[in-house]
């Protein structure tokens, strides 16, 4: 199976070469984390359709431009109104071959009718397989999550769980990959430095 780069070479090696084409990846993180930097790393690896459900197109583009990551000029589109799933499917149908889809954040789509949301995930998976593309669903793990989050995680192929902890004066970011369908999930977490870009922290914790 073809592997697509995450944009982070060290992470690609740990994942056996990257993300399998046709995969749906859930990036779970708290709203207070620097998880957006992860999205920006992922979009520079290949052509990207970036669907924003809360921020404006201008706000997303400004945020990407301010990050210390070479941009890839993604196509950005806002999803709003009364039929977000219909809007998303219409936009996803334009996804080109071997590209990345980002939905940031996923939560407003999870809040729709559960049966229609399941159909949306199935349609998304089929389109990713047909185009050898990858979807990154940015799922906020804040104070409230929709009941359909379980459905999202079950139907996804890969889960990136980004945990942010404050230890005294230090902010520690760790990435767990508890699910990797069709391959081996990572047995250990990966320590990250999330400042102006994403870097793998190779220093060892001292108890």
Précis, in short:
The longest helix has 18 residues, at 114-131. The protein has helices spanning 9-14, 35-43, 57-66, 84-92, 107-110, 114-131, 149-155, and strands at residues 3-4, 19-20, 24-29, 48-52, 75-78, 100-104, 134-140, 158-167, 170-180, 190-194, 198-200. A hairpin with a 3-residue loop joins strand 10 (190-194) and strand 11.
What can you tell me about this protein's structure?
With 207 residues, this protein is an alpha/beta fold. The chain has seven helices and eleven strands. The chain has helices at 9-14, 35-43, 57-66, 84-92, 107-110, 114-131, 149-155; strands at 3-4, 19-20, 24-29, 48-52, 75-78, 100-104, 134-140, 158-167, 170-180, 190-194, 198-200. A nine-stranded mixed beta sheet has the order 5-4-6-7-3-8-9-10-11, with helices on both faces. It has a two-stranded antiparallel ribbon with strand order 1-2. Strand 10 (190-194) and strand 11 form a beta hairpin. The termini are far apart. The model has no long low-confidence stretch (mean pLDDT 90).
